[in-house]
Amino acid sequence: MNTDIFEFKRPGVAVDVILFGILDKNLKVGLIQREEEPHLNKYALPGRFVRYEEPIEDTAKMALKLKGGINPEVVFSEQLYTFGQDLKRDTRIRTISIVYYGLIDSQKIDFQSGNKFKWYSVYDLPQLAFDHNAIIRYALERLCKKIKEWEDVAFQLMPKEFTLTELQNTYEIILNEKLDKRNFRKKILEQNILKELKKKKMEGVHRPAGLFSFIRQR
Amino acid sequence: MNTDIFEFKRPGVAVDVILFGILDKNLKVGLIQREEEPHLNKYALPGRFVRYEEPIEDTAKMALKLKGGINPEVVFSEQLYTFGQDLKRDTRIRTISIVYYGLIDSQKIDFQSGNKFKWYSVYDLPQLAFDHNAIIRYALERLCKKIKEWEDVAFQLMPKEFTLTELQNTYEIILNEKLDKRNFRKKILEQNILKELKKKKMEGVHRPAGLFSFIRQR
DNA sequence: ACAAAAGTGTTGTCAGTACACCCATGG
DNA sequence: CCATGGGTGTACTGACAACACTTTTGT
Q1: Cα distance between residue A13 and residue B156, in whole Å
Q2: What's the confidence (pLDDT) of residue B5?
Q3: Which of A40, A48, B34, B109 has the fewest CB atoms in 10 Å of its CB?
Q4: Nearest CB to A98: which of B2, B9, B84?
Q5: Which of A's residues 185-204 have CB atoms within 7 A of nucleic strand C?
Q6: Per the confidence metrics, is the pTM higher than 0.85?
Q7: Which residues pair with B97 in a beta bridge?
Q8: What is the spatial distance, in angstroms and rounded to an integer, between the CA atom of A143 and the C1' atom of D6?
Q9: Phi-psi region of B164 (alpha: psi -120 to 50; beta: other; left: phi over 0)
C-alpha cells in the first residue's frame, strides 16, 4: 500500500509569487531576471523551492525577500492555485508550483538596497520563463473578481492614509475602467471599512481632500 | 543559489479528494477507513502521494480509483486549495496536501465490487483523520458559493436526464435551504444551459414532469 | 372526484447605475 | 477671479423575492 511512502521519488515543490503594486498609475508586477538555467536571463516570477521544514507561506515570504529584496512583512499575500499538471514545466526536475499573489503599497518598496525587482505593467509583459505569463493573467482575473465583489483587498495596495479619489484610482487601475465618483463613494462608505481622519490632504490648487484609513489594520 | 536543487530534502506531496454525492436526499461525502498509521482505522478522505511522473489530476483520479474503487471518469473534479502550513500534519513525513473536490452522480456509484467508500452526510461527520473535517467544511463553503453564483456545477451531481424539481432539490440540499419554485425555474431556464427533452417522467399519481438535460455535456 | 406534484405571472422592493452642479483652495 | 479637483443627491432601471392558483395524472 502506502507504506513505501519513503521510497517514492518525490517531485519538487516550489512557491511562486506574483507581487502586484501600483506604480506610475499602472498595475505592475515585480519580476526578476533569472540567473540560472532553465530560462537563463529571462524574466520570471520570484520563486523558491519549499524546504522540508518550511511552511509554504514562509517559502513565499523567503522568495520575496531573497529573490526580490522585499521585506515580506509589508506584503499581503494569498494562495492562488497550484500548478502540477505539466511534468516538463521545469527541465531540471519535475516541479509542482504553488502560486501566491501578493499586494504591496508601492511606497514601501525600497528601490535602493538590493532590490532586484523590475516592475512591468500587467498589460505589457515581456515573454516570461515557464508558464508565468499565463499565471499572471490568471492572478489578474482573480484580483479583478475580488475587487468587483468589493472584497476589501485594494487597501493593501494603498498607503495608510489616502483620499477617496486615490482609492478610486486604484480600483480603476485594477479593473481597467472608469468608475462613477458618487456611486463609488456611496458604495465604499456604506461598508464601514473606512474611518475618516480629522485631516485634509492639502495639495494642488483646489479644495483639500479628506483623508481616510482602513479600520481593520493589516 | 538554487543550484542545490537536487540536494534539498523534499516534502511529500499528496492529493486528497472530497467526493460529494447526493444520497438519500442528503449531501454526502465519500470517506474511507484508514488501513495504516497514522490515524489507523479512522475515517479519512481518499488521498495519494503524488508520484514523480504523475500529473496531479491523475493523482486525484488514482486516489478515487484505488482508495475508493470509483471510476474517476464519471467524476467531475476541481482543485480547491493546497494545505502546506502545518509541518506535523502527517507524522511520518512533512506533507503538503493538494485538495480537490469531486462531484458524482450517485447513480453511477457501483456499490458492489470493491467500493470502499462509506458515505456520510456533510452535516454529520465522524471525527476524521488529519485536518479533514476542516477541509470538508471549506469545500462545502466553496461549493455553496458556486451554486449561489449560479455556476453550473450542480448538474455534475445529476443523472443525464432530470426534472426541474429534481434539479431544484439538488440545489436545496446543497444550500440547505428551501428555494421558490417559480423563481428557481425562471432563473435556471434563462441561462440557456438546459434543453427540454421531448419526454415526460411518468411517476406517481400526478401530472408528469418534463425531462431536461444539460446542453453542455460532461 | 380526489390526492399529489407539475407548471405558470405579477407585483413590490432594493441595489445599482446614470447624471450635473456647488465648494474650497492657491495663484 | 479663475482653474482645479473635491464633494454631494436624485431619479431610473433591472434583478430578485414574495406569493396562489390551474393542470395533469392514477386510483
Answers
A1: 31
A2: 73
A3: A40
A4: B84
A5: 186-187, 202, 204
A6: yes
A7: B14, B83
A8: 28
A9: alpha
